[in-house]
Amino acid sequence: MAANDLNQELLRRRETIRQGSAPQAIEKQHAKGKLTARERLDRLLDPGSFHEIAPYITHRHTAFGLDKKKFPGDSVLVGIGRVDGREIAVAAQDFTIVGGSFSEIQAQKVCQVLDLAIGSGVPFVSLNDSVGARIQEGVWSLAGYSELFWRNTQASGVIPQISVMLGPCAGGSVYSPGLTDFVIMTDQISHMFITGPQVIQTVTGEEVDLDTLGGAHTHASISGVAHFVAADEDETLAITRRLLSYLPSNNVDPAPRIELTDNPDRADPALDTLVPPDGSQSYDIREAIARIVDSDSLFEVHARFAPNAVVAFARLHGEVVGVVANQPAHMAGVLDINASDKIARFVRFCDAFNIPLVTFVDCPGFMPGSMQEHGGIIRHGAKIVYAYSEATVPKIAVITRKAYGGAYIVMSSKYIRTDLVYAWPTAEIAVMGAEGAVNILYRKRLAEMEKPEEERARFIAEFREQFGSPYAAAASGHVDDVILPSETRAKLIVALDFLRDKQATSLPKKHGNVPL
User: Fold this and answer.
1) Which of 86, 118, 197, 204 is the most exposed place for a label (fewest CB within 10 A)?
2) Which residue in 241, 311, 219 sits closest to 45, CA to CA?
3) 119 tagged catalytic
4) CATH fold of the domain at 269-427+479-499
């Protein structure tokens, strides 16, 4: 054949691959309200930036008619592209080809691009839409999962990994998203579960529908598997792009810094009266945070799970920070099992990728009760203190109101090596609240008094002044400064600028043993 004929043959094959599966399969995908794999990549990536890898490879299996179901590239698209001009590696399962089933070849392709991502230090984004393992391939499909899970684990803490759920994800498939840093689910379209409704009914007799078992809202609010929920695919991909804008490409590069648009010395007078002095009154800590960080930069993570705690990315003077806070507007900001897991994992992610931590503390303690104790609040709560103690990034804490007992300790307190601790005038730092302490310390004396209520009020005031006041903690060095709330933004920016090149050395060891 002439050179021109060979070139034309290549172009013809490219066009066939570009078109993908049969038109009727694509129409069926669209009828479900779902995009094809290539359409999704077109919307996620900067225009014209996708470069596909291994588009011609096909599987080698013949059982159950697989020899008649060979497609170039098999059931996944992989390659490299850009988001906002930054390189990323991507894999997009193609549900229109054998249901996007995870095959030996799909594993080979995804593992190859993940290896490239690790070696090049770029984030990895996986667009998931698959019926699960390709049963017809037997152990080869399972071995492919093993290879992927191993790589997800090796990549952890080296490059950011994001799983975008755009369809079903069942059985062994769920463990790859579970090993990645963030899971984004699409409402009504994506589902995740190890065993489906039919198997559950057969084995246990329980009847449950798809959404209740493994839908987006279930995993976002109950299981905590999903970090974000979107209404449709466009919003899902938009969230993915925004999330990437806060993340460094790897554990050596800094997080993206944006052009400064907000005055670093801006003071918001509304902050000075935002926190009610009465500890029984609630307020939304997110309002305080939003007023302190750069305008419109607050990006909450895990918003529906354990809402008594807030974790988020934000910017201060253009620099990315990880924000952790107790939420007095929900359960008084108490720490429970789910809040502990949520905080600890976010802290460890930020530390792995050198993102400074800013913690806002208003917590009356750990949730009491037999359900929490039997559920392991001790080991779950220990995760928070482990995560903060292990973290070597710049750490700054702001105590806005209550900081009681064990909750005070674990929430980035001074002596688990937090660099700077500030307190607002409303801060109360003590083993417990003044009321509870007086009831214990003065119980016998109050029982002998003629007017115990008047005396109790006096004892409470004295205890709060002597032990709970922010000035008492500042006098002992447990707090570095007492500041006006409106000064917080400027103080944090100065502190973060000073701590930018912080160096910390840990004891030599293979790794620690995180409480589970």
Assistant:
1) 204
2) 241
3) no
4) 2-enoyl-CoA Hydratase; Chain A, domain 1 (3.90.226)
Q: Which of 178, 375, 405, 406 is catalytic?
A: 406
Catalytic residue among 79, 171, 279, 333: 171
Is-catalytic flag, 406?
A: yes
Judged by DSSP in three states, 81 sits in strand
State the distance between the two ends of the chain, measured CA to CA, in whole angstroms.
64
Q: In b/e form, how buried is each residue of 184-216, taking b as 16+ CB within 10 angstroms?
A: bbbbebbbbbeebbeebeeeeeeeeeeeebbbb
What residue ranges do the domains of the chain occupy? Answer: 34-246, 269-427+479-499, 432-468
User: Any bridge partners for residue 301, and if so which?
Assistant: 311
Asked if the domains at 34-246 and 269-427+479-499 fall in one CATH topology, the answer is yes
Is 92 known to be catalytic? no
CB-based burial, 405-420: b 16+ in 10 Å, e otherwise? bbbbbbbbbbebebbb
Return the exposure string of 112-126: e unless at least 16 CB atoms fall within 10 Å of the residue's CB, then b. bbbebbbeeebbbbb
Active-site residue (options: 89, 255, 403, 407) = 407
Q: Return d(Cα 326, Cα 331) in angstroms, integer.
A: 10
CATH superfamily of 34-246: 2-enoyl-CoA Hydratase; Chain A, domain 1 (3.90.226.10)
Note whether 149 and 161 are within 8 A (CB).
no
DSSP-derived 3-state class of residue 112:
helix
The one-digit pLDDT tens for each residue of the chain (516 residues) are 678 888 888 998 888 888 878 889 899 999 999 999 999 999 999 999 999 999 999 888 878 888 888 888 899 999 999 999 999 999 999 999 999 999 999 999 999 999 999 999 999 999 999 999 998 998 989 999 999 999 999 999 999 999 999 999 998 899 999 999 999 999 999 999 999 999 999 999 999 999 999 999 999 999 999 999 999 999 999 999 999 999 999 999 999 999 888 999 999 999 999 999 888 899 999 999 999 999 999 999 999 999 999 999 999 999 999 999 999 999 999 999 999 999 999 999 999 999 999 999 999 999 999 999 999 999 999 999 999 999 999 999 999 999 999 999 999 999 999 999 999 999 999 888 777 777 888 788 877 787 778 778 877 787 777 777 899 999 999 999 999 999 999 999 999 999 999 998 889 999 999 998
For the entire predicted model, the pTM comes to: 0.94
Active-site residue identified among 172, 214, 279, 322: 172
